[in-house]
Amino acid sequence: MIDKFVASVEAALADIPDGATVMIGGFGNAGMPAALIDGLIAQGARDLTIVNNNAGNADAGLAALIKAKRVRKILCSFPRQADSWHFDALYRAGQIELELVPQGTLAERIRAGGAGIGAFFTPTAYGTLLAQDKETRRIGDRDYVLEYPIHADYALIKAERADRWGNLVYRKSARNFAPIMAAAAKCTVVQVREKVELGALDPELIVTPGIFVKRIVRLAPALQKAA
Amino acid sequence: MKKLDRNQMAARVARDIPEGSYVNLGIGLPTLVADHLPKGREIIIHSENGILGVGPRPAAGEEDEDLINAGKEPITLLAGAAFFHHADSFGMIRGRHLDYCILGAFQVAVNGDLANWHTGGADAIPAVGGAMDLAVGAKKVLVMMEHLTKKGESKIVGRCSYPLTGARCVDRIYTDLAVIDVKPDGLHVVEMVEGLDFPELERLTGVPLKRLATAA
């Protein structure tokens, strides 16, 4: 019997090695898998490459992982925010590498990673600093920049509801990067609020099919508030 | 002359958005446009983080941390709203499905080049978000900004000194002094605020402007 639920956050993250590439869902705090990030901090893996839209807000979640100096490199579109002080300090000290990617290019590179695409041409960033030294091509009457997919060893995401096959639905704009990250990682770990019986999710409305999901942790009600 | 304040600028932009439009509003000043859309016009607001049909701000105490806009501010939904993931959201942008995006700017050049993401300073931490995708993707790119910097320099320039967000992408500029169309043959003044005449606007702007026949 397939059952992707695991007993604890600890068990779900135990095999993440030093040097892993980890995608983390969320746009700001919406959809950020806080319990899994806390678990990753406790787990101890170092030298990580992180893919997220931002570079941490305030002191919790991704910001805490960055503060703990566990991130070697971050790929994101919008690191600088009023409350990104931990990233800002390490970046200015030259202790964290930044690959700045336009948000749509970031999303499409992740999508391409999950979809088996070798590379793609996008009009975004043509003629700007972020396309410097990149291959370009004129197709029809437009100029495009060649971009490559992003693959990850792990994706940590948050969903609202899951069944034991790993079918997922999300809540409101917490969906954001989660479905494409789930597809782009070798091992996708989901923190979920509610476990439902197989067949309880309407097949017409499942957002992420279970094929993209490896492990699910249902948070204890006490943790759910915090997460 | 009577400079427009931020709300008057937002109302001026809102007046030009027709019924049935799909619109993305940039962070900051452009977000104000939502508050000034004419009553009775059905206009659908897109947010990069996967929403069509953004509604007004929620009442105090009604905020939901899973329901935010691209500026990470709490929002509500209109009836008929939809959620989708980030790749679909930017597919809509790049795929030319949005009728308008309204962006803030540091500078716009005579040829429609836009600079709004990075000052290029050695100590500045760059952040781009979705601006480069919006600049190349929306059918019409509208810029909304103060005409002059705090030092009194024109933000409409011959050539951008800040790093570009997109090349030749701006269609129209709304400032606190004027509305100006960017066309292949240069900048056309569509209207000016009360008490400002064309020679004075051209002097303040510092680049050649053309006068539309209809402009006052």
- What helical percentage do the residues of chain A reach? 10-25%
Q: Could you list the spans of chain A in which at least 5 consecutive residues all have pLDDT below 50?
A: none
Spell out the CATH superfamily of chain B. Answer: Glutaconate Coenzyme A-transferase
Low-confidence stretches of chain B: none
Q: Write down the domain tally of chain A.
A: 1
What name does the CATH topology of chain A carry? Glutaconate Coenzyme A-transferase
How many helices of chain B does DSSP assign?
A: 4
Overall, the morphology of chain B is globular
**Most extensive interface: pair and counts?**
A-B, 45 and 39 residues
Mean pLDDT of chain A: 96
Calculate the terminal CA-CA distance of chain B, rounded to whole Å: 14 Å
Tell me about the biggest sheet of chain A?
8 strands, mixed
End-to-end distance of chain A: 29 Å
The CATH homologous superfamily of chain A is called: Glutaconate Coenzyme A-transferase
Rg of Cα set of chain B = 17 Å
The 3D shape of chain A can be described as: globular
The CATH topology of chain B corresponds to Glutaconate Coenzyme A-transferase
